[in-house]
Amino acid sequence: MYTKKLYIFSLLLLIPFLRITSQPGNLSFNIEAIGGYVSPDIVPFWLRSNQYGSVPLDNASLSMISSARKDYNPNKTNIFDWGASIEGRLNMGHKTTFTLVEGYGKIRISIFEIRAGRTKEVMGMCDTSLSSGSWSISGNAPGIPKVQLSIPEFYVLPWFDELFAIKGQFAHGWLGTVKTAIYRDTSFYRTYLHQKSFYGRVGKPWWNIKLLLGINHQAFYGNPQSYYGSEYTLSPLRSYYYLITGKLYSDENIELYVGNHLGSVDMGFEYAFKRIRLWLYRQNFYDSGALFKLANIQDGLNGISLENKHISNHAFRWKKILFELLYTRNQAGEPWSPPTHDPYEPYYNHGEYIHGWSYNDVGLGTPFITPKAMARKELPSNPDEYFINNRVKVFHLGFEGSVQQMNCMLKLSWSNNFGTYYTSDEEQTTDIEDPGKYGIFGRKEQFSAYLECRRELAKGLNIGCIAAADIGELLYDSFGLLFSVSKSF
Known about the structure:
By secondary structure, the protein is mainly β. It has a domain of 273 residues. 8% of the residues lie in helices and 49% in strands. It is globular and about 70 Å long.
């Protein structure tokens, strides 16, 4: 009780300070109170997914969210500038929790940026406001603390009459101590994140049509010498080279990729009509190399985004419509899939990293690949797999618009879920000796919905309502209704 009062008192003390100091246009503050009711023991899918760890408690609860942010000066083009952001969420209900949602500092030097800390990040080409979730990093989990050097925005190359533009980043992150299994012996090792990306755009800035292409690469890694002992002969520097290049290490004793690798090769097409912006994109997934032989080319995230650029005074106005299809059933394990180095790619699961592609026990990528803790307990699963449902087909619709003076966001998701290859009796070319040994998952249908409406009452003062629900065979049925009041300075 004392802790709750202390947090509330601290937030109240911030209010007069924010009013006094929030003068520059690149300095902003926000305080928000959210209260309501969520199904006991279950938080609906779209209240907990892609929220960067900012998740309400189940049952009746109250949340306080406070943020302060300094952006680059929008009115100046100085070679040097700096920025910072901090955001925290305090949940109070049947328990009290505090989450640091974001906390970083950044420096801009010409076109380059150096950033350090925890940040809200999505990695991969998609519509970040309405997407079902990017493949590599979707914002589903809190950001991994890291240091990053990047070109954050597309830089138009001066050659070829500004036809080409590029952006990218190179980062090192810290995951802390992670549970691993080597030769079935469980240990805890300090683990790091390697991350890089490179994206290019073809099309002059004033053209209506633009083409986009890029690749991103993430990997968890530690000290392989600690894992494998004398059998592993690479030096730390040589290990890092194998990590960042994704090269296979092989000698007479062992054969492995250094780290747990994952990423996507992305393609996009953009066309600006007079009043509508059309954006088509696709993320092609890779894990251990099957994509380069097109063995899992059937899998991917496909999106169509329409953005309304026309401003009108009509009572109803649509701002953005998104449709996505996510498909992950193939995994290079279908009978027709070309042979690759590994029999198949068990998306997000990993033999060495017991919790797979997750951080703080939350999946880093698309939330539609389901950890065991989030699914119905009666569903069959391999006890060695952290994600028990990684073969999915998802239809997702997103909408943003306004009715009168109310801004609304809608997300509707319908998924067919098929478990993993371990719980499938389908014909497959994996190395699984006895598929179906742990039971047959079959096809489980699931529907998840989310509706958010907000209205500005006065300058910077907003009220809102959020409703979310789950109905289906994969997740437990749930419902949540929240009300919010926020003030921006």
